[in-house]
Amino acid sequence: MGISKGSSKALCFVVDTTGSMGDDIAAVRSVTSTIIDNKVGTEDEPSLYILVPFNDPDFGPLIKTTNADVFKGYINSLTPSGGGDTPEMSLSGLQLALTGSPPNSEIFLFTDAPAKDEYLKNSVIALIEQSKTVVNFMITNVLGFRRRRQADGNQQQQQSQRMARADSQLYRDLAQASGGQAIQVSKNQLLQATSIITESTSSSLVNLLQANRNLGKLENYTFSVDETVTNLIIYITGSSVDFTLFNPSGSNTSLQVTLLEADSSTVTEVTLVESSGSGQVNGLVEAQGGGQYLVQFDKIPSVEFVVLVKGQIINSTTSRASSVTFQRQSTTSLRASTLTVTVSDVGSVLEPGTPLLVPFSVTTTGDGGNFVIKATNDQGFELTFPSSLTLESGGSANGTASLTAPSTSQSGTGVTLTIEAEAPGGADTNYDVLRLTVLPKVTDFSPPVCQLVSLQSNCSDNCNQSMWELSVEVTDGKNGTGIDRINLREGNGILNSNMTTADGSVTLVSYNASCCSPNVQIVVVDLVAKFLNNKFIIQSFSALSSLP
């Protein structure tokens, strides 16, 4: 949750590219240019840029780069096309972004259509909870208005409005689960609404309070603003919202604070607060030393909740020691579950063309019955699993999923497998996640071999006037996978390499250098060294040596 400055975050966009999204894509281009132009070279510069386009029936690919100009080029190349009917593959695009983004990222999804793949809701929530990622939805126009299939325009408009309320609720549920927002505006208001994106890219952004209500009545919210908060921003979303901001004295006010360096901080309260209600459970805080605290609760909320932390910042930079109260709230919602899903350890490698059997177990501490099983993977690989398991009250059951990557899958592709269990009637759900990497079966366990062919040296006392040259043959053996790269670790000369066989198993290396640089170290790495340790060789040569 953070008190001091954090590291910069990834900037991740998931963008609907259907024909009606021209204005939205233009807004994405504008906000991207603003962030890159204003924050590159500062502490708030994004550490990573990620883009996932989607429409129907396609989504992806996931584009990831650390180069701001390259990312700007990708954004500028987005072209709205097709569409005309809804819904779109928005959750598939979001799932791909969640599996490809680092933990604690913030994702912005732009669309004007409902989700065609709403069956992925629980899988997406599972990835949100695991990665602690915040997801914001930028929704333009009333969802469902792109449908134009009925002759009766009034009837169609009424149906679309009903669909809009139900469809946008899915996005609101996902935003709430992640601690994000679902902002619905007209297309000409979108550019103004994107200010949330530029504000959220701060490396020191913290969350003080977040609440979700649908009460239609007056309610008060209290939160503490400590001296480390330099720019307080309050977002209020909804319809017909009236609000007034008061300071503790009871008068409405503006806020100006100064950042002071805190010597230490102490946690004094930890509370579990219902995400959509006013219920809360207080914990007993015990300091463990080293900035660690153990918090014990006699119960936990039966609905989704967040963690609210309060404490004191002790500051002794002035002539007298002082303290100030701080509070921080987790973004991602948590929930208690009577279910446990456990995926067995099957390693982290998925061999192309070969089914990987993934055993898993489901345990309940509640009532038994028929539990629905769902499994998804973000690459769309062939996947089979039991549709249900029968559990007794307080019991467990085992199942096996089978995942197969196509034989043509690119080596190094990451795959995220999510297995979910749902209690009878949908009263409870839980999940487990397995991350795999597609790799071909390894038969090459030997390092490359470096054989000296020739070494010619005419070095004299005046090294600036003479050169020496080296010729080496590099092979990867009969069962080798081939040479991946050849680099210099030591030496200031010129290194050239040419493969002499079609399979890349034999490479001829030449090296030329001044006699003032008489030593060279050549590093040879084969193709499997990317995934195995000690699959390379370092060979040293010297102009002062002679052939054996």
Which features does this protein show?
single chain; 548 residues; alpha+beta; Rossmann fold; Immunoglobulin-like; 4 domains; six-stranded mixed sheet; 7 helices; 28 strands; 16% helix; globular; disordered N terminus
Descriptive account of the structure:
This protein has 548 residues and is α+β, with helices and mostly antiparallel strands. The chain is 16% helix and 35% strand. The chain folds into four domains: 10-200, von Willebrand factor, type A domain (Rossmann fold); 206-336, no CATH class; 339-438, Immunoglobulin-like (Sandwich); 449-542, Sandwich (Immunoglobulin-like), CATH 2.60.40. It contains seven helices and 28 strands. The strands form seven sheets. A six-stranded mixed sheet has the order 3-2-1-4-5-6, sandwiched between helices. A five-stranded mixed sheet has the order 14-21-20-16-18. A four-stranded antiparallel sheet has the order 8-7-11-12, with no helix packed on it. Residues 2-7, 143-163, 251-263 and 530-535 have low confidence and may be disordered.
Short description:
The chain has 548 residues and is an alpha+beta fold.
Number of self-contained structural domains: 4
How many DSSP-defined strands?
A: 28
CATH superfamily of the largest domain: von Willebrand factor, type A domain
Question: What's the alpha carbon Rg, rounded to whole Å?
Answer: 29 Å
Low-confidence region ranges: 2-7, 143-163, 251-263, 530-535
Total DSSP helices: 7
Adjacency order of strands in the biggest sheet = 3-2-1-4-5-6
CATH class of the largest domain: Alpha Beta
GO cellular component, one term: extracellular region
Domain VWA7 Ig-like: 347-440
Protein name: VWFA domain-containing protein
Subcellular location: Secreted
